[in-house]
Design brief:
single chain, 145 residues, 5-stranded parallel sheet, 41% helix
């Protein structure tokens, strides 16, 4: 199963360990579309997100108030979205998170647990989970319970 992913994020990765982690999974998931905005004001970020999302996208905002999944249920959730939507679009806000307007536009909110993560590190974590979900759905032994 091929999952059509898109990531729209505030901030641009620069060389370093976060960039390397992101690139490692980007090579494995070559079909992921990445759209980035340099750090900006909350209002500009909201316009940026709303400009790049489409009606055919399942919009998932990364947010501390979102649902926390285990990997297999997350993979199943993503696969289920493809019955309704063309793409799975993840939104990653800047250091202050997503605006209320963007959060309201999301179909789902996703959390990586109660811990606070640097938003640049979250990109690599998200890419790994997207990769893991793809392999779970394809029956590959990468994921171990």
């Amino acid at each position: 199963m091929h999952l059509p992913f898109k990531i729209i994020a505030v901030g641009q990765l620069k060389s370093g360990p976060e960039y390397d982690l992101f690139q490692q999974y980007k090579k494995r998931l070559s079909h992921v579309e990445i759209i980035q905005l340099k750090q900006s004001t909350k209002e500009a970020e909201e316009k940026f997100f709303l400009k790049h999302i489409r009606e055919s996208d399942c919009i998932i905002g990364l947010d501390e108030q979102g649902k926390d999944y285990a990997s297999i249920p997350f993979a199943q959730f993503l696969a289920a979205q493809l019955g309704t939507y063309k793409n799975i679009c993840f939104l990653i806000g800047g250091a202050d998170g997503l605006s209320d307007g963007v959060r309201q536009r999301c179909h789902h909110l996703l959390s990586f647990g109660k811990l606070t993560w640097p938003h640049m590190l979250v990109r690599g974590m998200l890419m790994e989970q997207m990769y893991r979900a793809t392999l779970i759905l394809n029956g590959h032994p990468y994921h171990r319970e």
